[in-house]
Design goal:
The protein has helices spanning 11-23, 34-41, 60-70, 85-93, 106-117, 120-124, 145-157, 174-183, 202-210, 227-230, 246-258, 284-289, 295-301, 315-333, 342-350, 356-370, 383-386, 388-391, 405-414, 417-430, 435-442, 446-455; strands at residues 3-7, 27-31, 48-52, 76-80, 98-101, 164-167, 192-196, 211-212, 224-225, 235-239, 260-261, 270-271, 275-280, 304-307, 339-340, 375-376. Strand 3 (48-52), helix 3 and strand 4 (76-80) form a beta-alpha-beta unit. Helix 21 crosses helix 22. The longest helix has 19 residues, at 315-333. The strands form 5 sheets. Strands 2-1-3-4-5 form a 5-stranded parallel β-sheet, sandwiched between helices. Strands 7-10-13-6-14 form a 5-stranded parallel β-sheet. The protein is globular and about 70 Å long. The chain is an alpha/beta fold and 460 residues long. The chain folds into 4 domains: 3-124, 3-Layer(aba) Sandwich (Rossmann fold), CATH 3.40.50; 145-307, P-loop containing nucleotide triphosphate hydrolases (Rossmann fold, 3-Layer(aba) Sandwich); 311-391, Orthogonal Bundle (Helicase, Ruva Protein, domain 3); 399-455, Arc Repressor Mutant, subunit A (Orthogonal Bundle), CATH 1.10.10.
Length: 460
């Protein structure tokens, strides 16, 4: 029986997840603070960890970092609100397996858990970090002029052995670009190995990249071939390369200059013929100027660079990829959803996709799961996407950050019925749509809040 640890300070949520997952054959342990979770993990190793992004005692990203230090191979699924999508993308970079958004749908959670457990890391329960693959694999070419320009650049650089830097926001398809370069090169029949540097701790990075010999350090019970050696003859893709420590950057510079590696604890060099493609969501030159990235290593990598525009700047690509993701999800879920209603298409074109293609994929998967008819309708979309214009999701950072609880309570009491909707909505947004916490913020009981929500279509 698989073991699941749920970490959430909302006890009602824990109770619901406990009942649902237990009914589906899982052993569930619920804890309410990050501190308790870390103490529990010192003696227990669950197969899956479901963790709320906003805990009372620490953020989900901080807890994830500590979990990865204790159990590098841990499969962590973050629970977050859609207003936290940017943060969710960041925790994916840190090594989270996936994220699910509130309000939670049992079938969606169950599907995500089953997919996580089906990975080789969960089956073999190996306590080591594996190369991470972005969820937007198997991409098709975009129609936008911006993407067509990228295709031209790929055609120019692919036949060469140039190192390439790919710039772009998380989820924008950087790994897909790297794969295209590899597949159009003379190395196409050789390995392509992707490594998420953001998921590697300083202690594990050397072993993951260069490998180690038996007995090189505590826990090195056998020889390990590193990812660079695995990619010999082919292409290695280093995603979020700026996250590597200074010491690892020094070792990587030697690899680039001398085309040799030495395993951790080894005494002999191993010849290496590998093309290196790196990616970053920040300019490596800026990181070099700030002392966070070696300037000489930057110049070695910067033989050619490609910039991938965010999805919001590639409007012509949005529905193309949405249709592609729908086709994939239909096959995965064994459903037959034909397409999107015009209202959904309009919303997709207006929305600012902070998580880029990864966020679009998750929205399409979620909507497909909830759709019984031929077309995905607005009601199947997450609340904050459906109400993007009202919430001004792109530009507004809630004024509530500066408001005290008392001022919000007074504001609620003073408004008329027409403005009441907006105040309740603000409270829900501030609490990541946790109704229990929103009721406390407004100084009303939870039953009253639930009744108010029922009065306004879209808040449920």
């Amino acid at each position: 029986m698989y073991k699941i640890l749920v970490v959430d300070d909302d006890k009602d949520m824990c109770m619901l997840l406990d009942r649902f997952l237990t009914r589906n054959g899982y052993s569930v342990k619920c804890l309410h603070t990050g501190k308790d979770a870390l103490q529990y993990l010192q003696k227990n190793k669950p197969d899956i960890i479901l963790c709320d992004f906003r805990l009372d005692d620490m953020t989900g990203s901080k807890l994830l970092q500590k979990i990865k230090e204790m159990i590098p191979a841990a499969l962590v699924i973050i629970i977050t609100g859609y207003s936290d999508v940017k943060d969710a993308v960041e925790v994916m970079k840190m090594g989270a397996y996936d994220y699910v958004t509130k309000p939670l749908f049992p079938d969606e959670i169950l599907l995500t858990i089953k997919k996580a457990l089906s990975t080789q890391g969960a089956k073999e329960k190996k306590e080591e970090v594996k190369p991470q693959i972005e969820t937007e694999e198997e991409h098709i070419y975009g129609n936008s002029p911006e993407f067509q320009n990228i295709i031209k650049q790929i055609g120019l650089v692919a036949p060469t052995n140039f190192s390439v830097i790919i710039y772009g926001e998380s989820g924008s398809g950087k790994e897909a670009i790297a794969k295209m370069i590899h597949e159009k090169s003379e190395r196409a029949n050789q390995p392509f190995v992707a490594i998420d540097c953001g998921a590697l701790t300083a202690e594990l990075a050397g072993s993951e990249l260069f490998g180690h010999e038996k007995g090189a350090f505590t826990g090195a019970v056998s020889q390990k071939v590193g990812s660079l050696e695995t990619a010999n003859g082919g292409t290695v893709f280093l995603d979020e390369v700026a996250n590597l420590s200074y010491d690892i950057q020094v070792s990587l510079l030697r690899v680039v200059q001398e085309r040799k590696i030495r395993r951790v604890g080894g005494v002999k060099d191993i010849g290496l013929d590998v093309r290196i493609i790196v990616a970053s969501n920040e300019k490596l030159w800026d990181a070099a100027l700030n002392g966070r990235f070696r300037e000489d290593l930057y110049h070695r990598f910067n033989e050619f660079s490609i910039e991938v525009p965010p999805l919001r700047n590639r409007k012509d690509d949005i529905m193309l990829f949405a249709e592609h993701f729908l086709k994939r999800t239909n096959a995965e879920l064994k459903k037959h959803v034909r397409g999107f209603s015009q209202d959904v298409k309009d919303i997709f074109m207006e929305y600012v996709w902070h998580g880029n293609l990864r966020e679009l994929l998750n929205v399409v998967k979620r909507a497909t799961l909830l759709t019984d008819g031929e077309l995905i309708e607005v009601t199947a979309l997450p609340f904050e996407i459906n109400n993007y214009k009202k919430l001004q999701f792109d530009n507004v950072k809630s004024d509530l950050q500066a408001d005290s609880i008392e001022s919000l309570e007074n504001k609620y009491k003073a408004v008329n019925i027409n403005a009441e909707y907006e105040v309740i909505l603000e409270a829900l947004r501030r609490t990541q749509f946790n109704k229990t916490k929103a009721a406390k913020l407004l100084n009303i009981d939870r039953k009253t809040l639930y009744n108010k929500i029922k009065q306004y279509k879209g808040l449920e």
